[in-house]
Amino acid sequence: QVQLVESGGGLVQAGGSLRLTCAASGIIFSISVMGWYRQVPGKQRELVATITSGGSVKYAESVKGRFTISRDNAKNTVYVQMNSLKPEDTAVYYCNAHGPGAPFTYDYWGQGTQVTVSS
Fold it and tell me: How far is CA 35 from CA 2, 62, 64, 76, 111, in A?
């Protein structure tokens, strides 16, 4: 059974920081591409950041220089450190795991964690 369990969300003032954690089980974590996405009501889910098994990272333009994604393969965990938070970062943040390619073609999501940034 695959589980992606996010934690670390909450309420923070603008300019503050949060670190989100996603603990994965039931997948081959070390080969998985891990990512963070976010969604606000009425809008599509959007990419925040991804990290490959080899450590290559990609960020949305809106978070570059403020957010840092990292992973710990020994703990099957992926993180995103969010600094200099802005009210527009308010969203539900979701952890994602997907396979690197055939034959590993899976795509899983966590339940989400709310991040609210007050002005």
Answer: 16, 16, 15, 13, 14
Confidence of residue 41 (pLDDT cuts 50, 70, 90): very high
| Residue in this structure with the two tokens 């393969």, named with its chain if needed | 73
Query: How far is C-alpha 39 from the chain's CA centre?
Result: 12
Q: How far apart are CA 18 and CA 25, in angstroms?
A: 23
**What's the gap between Cα 53 and its chain centre?**
15
Over the Cα atoms of the chain, what is R_g? 14
Bridge partner list, 34: 51, 97
Looking at residue 95, its pLDDT comes to 98
Backbone phi, psi, residue 63, to 5°? -115, -5
